[in-house]
Amino acid sequence: QVQLVESGGGLVQAGGSLRLSCAASGRTFSTYAMGWFRQAPGKERVFAAGISRSGGNTIYADSVKGRFTISRDYAKNTVYLQMDSLKPEDTAVYYCALDRGYSDHVPVSWYEYDYWGQGTQVTVSS
User: Fold this and answer.
1) Which long-range contacts does 22-28 make (Cβ < 8 Å, 24+ apart)?
2) What is the pLDDT of residue 30?
3) Rounded-to-integer distance, Cα 94 and Cα 82, Å
4) Which long-range contacts (CB under 8 A, 24 or more apart) does 71-76 make?
5) H or E element at residue 105
6) Mean pLDDT (whole number) for 66-77
7) How far is residue 23's CA from residue 74's CA, in Å, rounded to a whole number?
8) How far apart are CA 113 and CA 16, in angstroms?
9) d(CA 108, CA 126)
């Protein structure tokens, strides 16, 4: 079993930055690809960023490319999402997710992930 706990959300003005963290416990963290999804009120959960098992591959949604950076620290069993130049449309609950698959690709669909955190709220004011 794997447990994921997100932190780092909050209220920030447009143009500001936040760094989200997702701490994993349980099975071997380094084995798995990790992703960040977000869900705005009344909308579906969508992919934001992902990183492969090795950390060598990353993928970003077009809406966050160039502004968000995903990274991982194997020693701390933690994955991060650095969010810069935040916009009001980035307001959402952000979820981290873990894929137990053994390839080094980055899943971008929610159903490819096996474990989810509880989410952390990010609110960007204009």
Assistant:
1) 22/78, 22/79, 22/80, 22/81, 22/96, 22/117, 23/76, 23/77, 23/78, 24/77, 24/78, 24/79, 24/98, 25/77, 26/1, 26/2, 27/1, 27/2
2) 60
3) 12
4) 72/34, 74/29, 74/30, 76/23
5) none
6) 94
7) 10
8) 30
9) 29
Residue type, 4: L
3-state secondary structure 28-60: CHHHCEEEEEEECCCCCCEEEEEECCCCCCEEE
Closest CA to 83 of 9, 33, 24, 6: 9
What the block records as the tokens of 89 is 């449309």
Task: Measure CA of the first residue to CA of the last residue in the chain; give whole Å.
Answer: 40
Residue pair 28/1 in contact (Cβ under 8 Å)? The answer is no
Kindly report, residue by residue over 11-47, the tens digit of the pLDDT.
999 999 999 999 998 866 567 899 999 999 999 999 9
Cα torsion angle, 22, 24, 28, 32, sign = negative
